[in-house]
Amino acid sequence: xxxxxxxxxxxGLGRVIAQALDGAGFQVALLGRTRSxxxxxxxxxxxxxxxxxxxxxxxxxxxxxxxxxxxxGRVDLLVNNAGTFGPSGEADEIAPEEFAxxxxxxxxxxxxxxxxxxxxxxxxxxxxxxxxxxxxxxxxVPRPGSAAYTTSKHAITGLTRALALDGRAxxxxxxxxxxxxxxxxxTAGIAVGAxxxxxxxxxxxxxxxxxxxxAVVAMAQLPLGVSVPTMTILATGMPYAGRG
Length: 244
Fold this sequence. Notes:
Elements (H helix, E strand, L loop, with lengths): L2 E5 L4 H12 L3 E6 L2 H8 L5 E5 L5 H15 L4 E4 L15 H28 L5 E6 L12 H21 L4 E9 L13 E2 L5 E2 L7 H11 L9 E5 L10
Parallel strand pairs: 1-2, 1-4, 2-3, 4-5, 5-6, 6-9
Antiparallel strand pairs: 7-8
């Protein structure tokens, strides 16, 4: 039975993705900061392991992967989903420490988890696996006042491409899913009113995050000889094409 690690699994997209993978037959390690939230995710799952983890901590990430491998013997899939919007504002309005904290979770956290996954996937038998990084529409185009978040998501694209290249020799397939306006707690305000590039505030369409989870499961179930370098999934009608 395949083993998946999902970060940010205590809420939002991470919860829906983890539960969808469980439904598809994966054994799923749930990583996130809050045990109670992870346990709520796990409460309707058949095969899960709750691992409270700060993904920005190399020691905690290493311990979490060791626990997952200790339980199930391997890692076949990593979904790097943990992330934070971080501070809003123009560059001179953002505190340097808040900028750094955003990158610590969104970028360093993704790297640390990928690092552990790579090591395990290279040494296990049969070797290999798949990594899916959660990018964003902001990996392509920004929203106003989002320098920290947009920087972090552009960095995820670079990380994905580098991992995909390095993974070829080890049967590790790496791809990215860029999501626009899935309806979660994190994006709840968008449906009410989101600041636009022209300075106006307008509501934007959203869509059921289950469609994201279904897409991730479809990517995860492909044979390792098939890769999805990038997928964009968004609410039809949201300001993406022509944004700005």
